[in-house]
Amino acid sequence: VLRHMVEKVRCRLLFATHYHPLTKEFASHPCVSLQHMACMFKTKAAALPGSSSDTGSKELVFLYKLASGACPESYGMEVAHMAGVPMPVIEAARGASQVMKSWVSKSFESSEGRSKFSTLHEDWLKSLLGISKIRNVSDDDIDALLCLWHEMKSCYK
């Protein structure tokens, strides 16, 4: 869908959140410029003189400036806090996020340990070979080949 929006519709702006795989797929596309809204963390000062509540904790500050490249991090937990989501919910989400990151990391490491190619890379390669055997290769098939090629290339930089 995004490829169609970029190449056929010539969409001038698309705002997306939580689509990190798209940043890899379109990072080197000649018609796409990845950008993000800049932000920073600042240290909170005490609310009242002598008060120690929240002193030294970090606060997300939006800079209202467009910066080049994909956003380097996710700030979902901080934004949830700013939106007033209860702390027990945020802490549960933070814990689930850490478990998921750990699971993905361990899963990738164990598949990498068995050979140079991970299972994921083998799947990409099989897809690439399967598509290349098609006699009448359509534009969509060529796009799929290019996506697979870019994904494999980015993993071995």
UniProtKB/TrEMBL annotation:
The keyword RNA-binding does not apply. Keywords: ATP-binding, DNA-binding, Nucleotide-binding. Gene3D superfamilies: P-loop containing nucleotide triphosphate hydrolases. One of its GO terms (biological process) is mismatch repair. Coiled coil: none annotated. Belongs to the DNA mismatch repair MutS family. Pfam families: MutS_V (PF00488). GO terms for molecular function: ATP binding; ATP-dependent DNA damage sensor activity; mismatched DNA binding. The keyword ATP-binding applies. InterPro entries: DNA_mismatch_repair_MutS_C, MutS, P-loop_NTPase. This is DNA mismatch repair proteins mutS family domain-containing protein. GO terms for cellular component: MutSalpha complex. Residues 1-98 form the DNA mismatch repair proteins mutS family domain.
